Amino acid sequence: MAIERTFSMIKPDATKRNVTGKIIDRLESAGLRVVAQKRVWMSLREAEGFYAEHKARPFFGELTEFMSSGPTIVQVLEGENAVAKNREIMGATNPADADEGTIRKDFALSIGENSVHGSDALETAKREIAYWFSETEVVG
Ligand code: DAT
Ligand code: MG
Fold first, then answer.
1. Of 59, 106, 119, 126, whose CA is between 20 and 30 Å from 52?
2. Whose CA is closest to atom 17 on ligand 1?
3. Domain limits at 101?
4. Is 92 in the pocket of ligand 1 (CB under 6 A)?
5. Has 54 been annotated as catalytic?
6. Is ligand 1 within 6 A of the CB of residue 85?
7. Model-level pTM?
8. Rg of the chain on CA atoms, in Å
C-alpha cells in the first residue's frame, strides 16, 4: 500500500454548525494525518474554478453559491491509500445513500450540503492540493 496525499474540505454547512472538530476526529481516527490546514471563505470565482469540472451540471450554480456562502476548512490528508480511504469514510454524495458510520451519513444535511469534499483520484488530489496550498504550506 502506498502513502498518498489527498485534498479534503469541510464545507460551510459543517463550519456553520461548529462540528469541524468532530469531522477531523473521524479523519484522524481512520489513520489519516492532517499535513496542511486552513480556514478559507472562498469567493464565488474561486468556487467556480475549483469545481470547473462540474460547470455543465444543472447544480453548478447552487453548488458554487453554497461553497462561497461561509467558511470552509481546506486540508491535505496523508496516509496509506489516503484518496480511497477518505472517500470511504466520507460516504456517498447523497447522505440518503451513505453507509452507517460515514461522515455524510452522520453530518450531511442534503445532497448539496453534504459537509465534506474529498478528491476522487490521485491526479485530482494533486490538482486540488495545488489549487489551495503552496508547497511550503504542506508539512508532513
Ligand atoms: P462528491 O462530492 O461525492 O465527489 P460530485 O463530485 O459528483 O460528488 O459532486 C460535487 C458536489 O456537487 C457534491 O458534493 C454536492 C454537489 N452535487 C452533486 N450532485 C448534486 C445534485 N444532484 N444536486 C445538488 N448538488 C449536487
Ligand atoms: Mg467529486
1. 106
2. 112
3. 3-137
4. no
5. no
6. no
7. 0.98
8. 14
**Residue 11, all three cell numbers:** 464545507
- Could you tell me the distance, in angstroms and rounded to a whole number, from the CA of residue 136 to the centre of ligand 1? 30
Question: Does residue 1 register a pLDDT over 80?
Answer: no
Which of 93, 97, 99, 114 for a ligand 1 pocket mutation test, highest count of atoms within 8 Å of Cβ?
93
Q: Of all residues in the chain, what percent carry a pLDDT higher than 90?
A: 99
User: Could you tell me how far CA 102 lies from the centroid of its own chain?
Assistant: 14
Which among 86, 117, 129, 133 is annotated as catalytic?
A: 117
Question: pLDDT tens-digit profile of 35-81?
Answer: 999 999 999 999 999 999 999 999 999 999 999 999 999 999 999 99
d(CA 39, CA 52): 21
Instruction: Using pLDDT thresholds of 50, 70 and 90, give the confidence band for residue 116.
Output: very high
Q: What is the CATH number of the domain that holds 9?
A: 3.30.70.141
Expressed in angstroms, the distance from the first to the final Cα of the chain is 18
Within 10 angstroms of residue 92's Cβ, the number of other Cβ atoms is 16
Q: How many structural domains compose the chain?
A: 1
| Burial bucket for residue 134 (CB in 10 Å: 0-12, 13-18, 19+) | exposed
Mean pLDDT across the chain, nearest whole number? 98
